[in-house]
Automatic annotation (TrEMBL), chain A:
<protein>
    <submittedName>
        <fullName>Tripartite tricarboxylate transporter TctB family protein</fullName>
    </submittedName>
</protein>
<keyword id="KW-0472">Membrane</keyword>
<keyword id="KW-1133">Transmembrane helix</keyword>
<keyword id="KW-0812">Transmembrane</keyword>
<dbReference type="InterPro" id="IPR009936">
    <property type="entry name" value="DUF1468"/>
</dbReference>
<feature type="transmembrane region" description="Helical">
    <location>
        <begin position="23"/>
        <end position="48"/>
    </location>
</feature>
<feature type="transmembrane region" description="Helical">
    <location>
        <begin position="101"/>
        <end position="117"/>
    </location>
</feature>
<feature type="transmembrane region" description="Helical">
    <location>
        <begin position="60"/>
        <end position="80"/>
    </location>
</feature>
<feature type="transmembrane region" description="Helical">
    <location>
        <begin position="147"/>
        <end position="169"/>
    </location>
</feature>
From TrEMBL, chain B:
<feature type="transmembrane region" description="Helical">
    <location>
        <begin position="109"/>
        <end position="135"/>
    </location>
</feature>
<keyword id="KW-0812">Transmembrane</keyword>
<keyword id="KW-1133">Transmembrane helix</keyword>
<protein>
    <submittedName>
        <fullName>Tripartite tricarboxylate transporter permease</fullName>
    </submittedName>
</protein>
<feature type="domain" description="DUF112">
    <location>
        <begin position="20"/>
        <end position="437"/>
    </location>
</feature>
<feature type="transmembrane region" description="Helical">
    <location>
        <begin position="60"/>
        <end position="82"/>
    </location>
</feature>
<feature type="transmembrane region" description="Helical">
    <location>
        <begin position="170"/>
        <end position="187"/>
    </location>
</feature>
<feature type="transmembrane region" description="Helical">
    <location>
        <begin position="147"/>
        <end position="163"/>
    </location>
</feature>
<feature type="transmembrane region" description="Helical">
    <location>
        <begin position="389"/>
        <end position="407"/>
    </location>
</feature>
């Protein structure tokens, strides 16, 4: 009995849900879009069945697309009833303030730069830039020290993994120098 | 006895200086990476997977065993010293562990965690040796419909049993299944969801998915909410335990092991339930109830042992049936697949020596871990103070390196970022990550088994039903699905009536 009473109190002390978490409707839209895309893609696949494969390649994507659409609706209903997911907490996560989009956009830019440059410049340069840029984006301002750390890290990983262990990492413009 | 001989052969294979060195390296980097805040065991294994790409499978798995247990132990260190569990399985450890640390007993908390993990890991691995052959014998008799049913059970279990919201669990699962769909259909050779991109014909590599969702997603999520002042780390000396601590610890270790292993070995298990059960049991049985909530050593010893024993338990369905039940096992399965090895009942025939080397390395890694961690704990604790910009820069650096190294194509980096953004959104909206990973790995195989079942029945849907095993599994699935409804429509009205 006592546990039930406690539950009651906990529920009542929750902050009142004013309108809920509207951004969740965006997730519903995404699911619906994805479901439609999966179905459209499946309809474009030739319907091949044979004695050894009576189902063919279309059935599973069609079912999956249908389920995605269904879940989009169910999720929307859940959101409409005030349902919300708990954002993930963590040791370095401070959920009290809003999201810091500037940092996120900077990080994405740094990440994309690495993806675009890795073949041309090679891992040592692009990976070093990635580390340096990420540290900068996250608010570290020791430019010179970070440059040294980045260079050490990317050189060490290149020699240890690419040359030592045979992992695929491009040498890029430094081909022949390293 | 045959298995004991096999195991001995496995030990003999590991007892080579180079292999022992690899095991040691595995344990050290596993712990070092696992200790880092925000990195749980699954992410540790995923991030370190590429390190082993250039190696022979045997050596790679020797190192993997070390990384596996090292990552687990590292996670519990973080939860004790920072009160911030990296994975749901170490939530319970943090409850009493951090209280102990705050009361100046961090050394004892770390010691009972380390020794308890060793005891549980050793017993758990021993049970793995004893139980797996029976599971293999059972699994050999399974047909395609049975496998299909078991995989459905795994899907339902990770979405319904774990986590708080079923809808969110199912969304995550469907996203994973969709990602798993990308590529050439293995039966008909047709391209699905490849958008005409030739590199996507082979599908999206599971390693890229795991690293993207875990590592990149986490880095982006933290970047958006970075606490400018890092959490306080409790300084710690060399772990040790007094006589009284030993006396209070050994029973919880054994009880925790007894809870952890069976739950881990079940297709619907996981570490959350046994750690909570162990905590509740110790709280009831303790002679020092006043200490619970203020740092009782039993509350660290039991759950930590349960956690480790359950990790050993998850290897049973992973190796014998090819069914991963937690994120770490899922990534391990991906590691097997990256070597072209398919876990399942045939694994013990085709790759017998490899499996036994892996199991022998689990024993050795576990022992090395104990020998290393008692003296090195203060050094690990220092890693917790690493400046956060460097920590997350390092995570992105190694994540990119690993994802690129899988296929040596820059496209994977773009996919990695896309998946990272997906991981970010999932953290924002409270969607659990595990169902997605399980969906990516098991989805294509479930489809294959399902289509195989229907092939046997000539397309009749009844072919999916199979025999007694799948009937049982479907009954369990129905029970899992209906359970909350029973709670709502049967238990609650009854309780209301009795209250009135």
């Amino acid at each position: 009995m006592s546990s039930q009473v406690e539950e009651q109190i906990v529920e009542d002390s929750r902050p009142p849900r004013e309108g809920g978490d509207r951004a969740q409707y965006g997730v519903c839209a995404f699911l619906a879009l994805l479901g439609t895309a999966v179905i459209v893609d499946a309809l474009g696949i030739p319907h091949i069945t044979s004695g050894t494969d009576p189902v063919g390649p279309r059935a599973v994507p069609l079912i999956l697309g249908g389920l995605l659409l269904l879940l989009a609706v169910l999720y929307a209903l859940d959101v409409a009833r005030g349902g919300r997911g708990e954002p993930e907490a963590g040791e370095d996560v401070d959920l009290s303030a809003g999201s810091d989009w500037r940092t996120v956009v900077l990080l994405i830019a740094v990440f994309l730069a690495n993806a675009l440059l890795i073949e041309r410049l090679g891992w040592v340069i692009s990976g070093g830039l990635l580390f340096w840029g990420t540290a900068f984006a996250l608010g570290n301002r020791h430019y010179i020290r970070n440059l040294l750390i980045s260079a050490t890290l990317s050189l060490t990983t290149f020699y240890a993994f690419a040359i030592g262990l045979g992992v695929n990492l491009p040498a890029g413009v430094l081909q022949g120098i390293l | 006895m045959d298995n004991l001989n096999n195991l001995m052969q496995g030990f003999a294979d590991v007892m080579d200086p180079l292999n022992l060195l690899l095991a040691l390296v595995g344990v050290v980097i596993g712990t070092a990476v696992g200790v880092l805040p925000g990195i749980g065991p699954a992410m540790t294994v995923a991030l370190l997977l590429p390190v082993t790409y250039g190696m022979e499978p045997v050596q790679a798995f020797i190192m993997f065993a070390g990384i596996f247990y090292g990552g687990m132990y590292g996670g519990s260190t973080t939860s004790i010293l920072l009160n911030t569990p990296g994975e749901s399985s170490s939530v319970v450890t943090a409850i009493e562990g951090n209280k102990m640390a705050k009361a100046g007993r961090a050394a004892q908390a770390l010691a009972t965690a380390a020794i308890g993990s060793f005891v549980a890991g050793t017993i758990g691995t021993l049970l793995l040796v004893l139980v797996t052959p029976f599971v293999v014998d059972f699994a050999v008799s399974l047909g395609a419909p049975d496998y299909f049913a078991l995989m459905l059970l795994a899907f339902i279990a990770v979405t319904s049993v774990l986590g708080s919201s079923r809808i969110r669990g199912f969304i995550s699962l469907l996203l994973g299944l969709t990602i798993g769909l990308v590529g050439i259909d293995s039966v008909s050779g047709q391209q699905r969801l490849t958008l005409g991109v030739p590199q996507l014909a082979d599908g999206i590599d599971v390693v890229v998915v795991a690293v993207g969702i875990f590592a990149v997603g986490e880095a982006l999520w933290v970047a958006a909410h970075l606490r400018r002042k890092p959490a306080e780390v409790i300084p710690v000396g060399r772990p040790w335990m007094g006589k009284k601590d030993w006396k209070r610890s050994w029973k919880p270790w054994l009880r925790g092991t007894a809870y952890g292993f069976p739950f881990g070995a079940l297709p619907a298990g996981g570490a959350e339930i046994p750690t909570f059960l162990s905590y509740a049991t110790e709280k009831r049985l303790t002679k020092h109830p006043e200490e619970f909530g203020k740092g009782a050593i039993e509350g660290v010893a039991g759950p930590e042992a349960a956690n480790n024993a359950s990790a050993a338990g998850t290897l049973v369905p992973m190796l014998a049936i090819g069914l991963p039940t937690n994120a770490t096992a899922a990534v391990m399965l991906a590691a097997f697949q990256s070597y072209g090895i398919q876990p399942g009942p045939l694994l013990f025939e085709r790759e017998a020596s490899l499996v036994w080397v892996l199991i022998a390395s689990l024993f050795i890694g576990n022992l090395l871990l104990l020998l290393l961690n008692l003296p090195l704990a203060p050094a690990w604790a220092k890693l917790l103070q690493i400046p956060r910009p460097y920590l997350y820069a390092g995570i992105l650096f190694f994540a990119s390196m690993g994802a690129y190294a899988v296929n040596a194509q820059p496209l994977d980096l773009f996919i990695l970022l896309t998946l990272g953004l997906l991981g970010f959104a999932m953290r924002r909206f409270g969607l659990p990550v595990l169902p997605l990973i399980v969906g990516v790995i098991l989805g294509p195989r479930a489809e294959l088994q399902g289509r195989r079942s229907l092939q046997l029945s000539g397309g009749e849907l009844s072919g999916l039903l199979g025999g007694p095993v799948s009937y049982t599994v479907y009954a369990v699935i129905a029970l899992v699905l209906v359970w909350p409804l029973i709670g709502r429509f049967v238990v609650r009205p009854l309780r209301a009536r009795s209250a009135a």
